[in-house]
Amino acid sequence: MNKNKTDKVMITLTKWFGIALLIGIIIWGATYFLKGYRYEQTNDAQVDAYLSPINVKVGGYINKIYYKDNQQVKKGDTLVVIELDEYGLKKDAASAELMSSHAKLPILAANEETQLKSIEVIKAQLAGAKARLNQQQKEFARYQNLLADESTTQQKFDNVSASLSIVQSDYDQAKASLQVAESKLNDFRAQRNAIQAEIKIKETLLQRQELDIRYTVITAPFDGQIGKKTIQEGQLTQPGQTLAFLVNKAEEKWVMANFKETQISNFKIGQVVSIEVDAFPNEKFNGTIESLSPTTGSRYSLLPPDNATGNFVKITQRIPVRIKLTDTAEKLAKLSAGMNANVYVLKD
């Protein structure tokens, strides 16, 4: 008797369990098909954000690292310091070369002053030679007239003519000396311009060395969270090498969803989107379509498919769709780049 009663209870429980399971399946199926009717959906989606590389501008050995994996940093915080010794020596050498160029200017100024005085002396000599030449030319003209009148001897005239040639030679020599002296003064002035240009170049080189010294200290360009540390102290770095990646907390995050090409025919900018993130299954995030890619995702691959090769298999392609998240910054702060998501686009 008790056995029959137990069997009836088990049958009743099984029946009700089956009914509950059937109702659950019906509800799940109705929800699934309702979503499929109201939404275009995909699970091929990820949260994305800008990863800013922290690059080193000068090469050298790493002296000190001031951050750890996943550390929060503020703008201006020191992240890495490159050994300074080599750049300090280069700066000292550039500074010494600049001082050497500056030291040439007083010497050149003294040479210019001496040359100006020499020019004044030569000008005075030239004036005397000019006066003597004028006097001798008059003397030559007078004796020339006397010789024509046979009032002097040929010997006397020849002596006056020779004196004129000597005085003319002295004058020409003084004039040539003045030209040489003035040309040398111009050379000194040209040298001054060259030294001043040299000083400008060496000042620029010194500034570059000072800039390189500042570059040995790598700081955070903005507030954010640093990623994985992949460098060690004592490691040799090259200019342009990426030392770490920094996520800017002030920049917006977005979702990149890859929809099938058969799903996007009615998509448009501003269309409402609902997002579920695997990391937070009980929380909904909101967004809107921001843009659609002009090509399929496969076109960005290293070897894009070419259907003209002979063996053609038609494969449904996916179109990347960028979705702007519209929730508050506090709510979006918990999202990390790379998180998987399910995206539902409300059909119009």
What characteristics describe this protein?
348 residues; alpha+beta; Elongation Factor Tu (Ef-tu), domain 3; OB fold (Dihydrolipoamide Acetyltransferase, E2P); Helix Hairpins; 3 domains; 6-stranded antiparallel beta barrel; 4-stranded antiparallel β-sheet; 4 helices
Q: Give the name of the CATH superfamily of the largest domain.
A: Helix Hairpins
List the secondary-structure elements in sequence, H or E. HEEEEEHHEEEEEEEEHE
Radius of gyration: 47 Å
> Architecture of the largest domain, according to CATH?
Orthogonal Bundle
Strand content: 15-25%
Number of helices: 4
Large-scale geometry? rod-shaped
Question: What proportion of the residues is helical, as a percent range?
Answer: 40-55%
Largest sheet: 6 strands, antiparallel, barrel
Q: How many β-strands, per DSSP?
A: 14
Distance between the termini: 63 Å
In the predicted model, the low-confidence regions spanning at least 5 consecutive residues are none
CATH fold call of the largest domain? Helix Hairpins
CATH class of the largest domain: Mainly Alpha
Number of domains as seen in the coordinates: 3
User: Given the helix and strand composition, which structural class is it?
Assistant: alpha+beta
Mean of residue pLDDT values: 85
Major sheet: order of its strands?
1-10-13-12-11-14
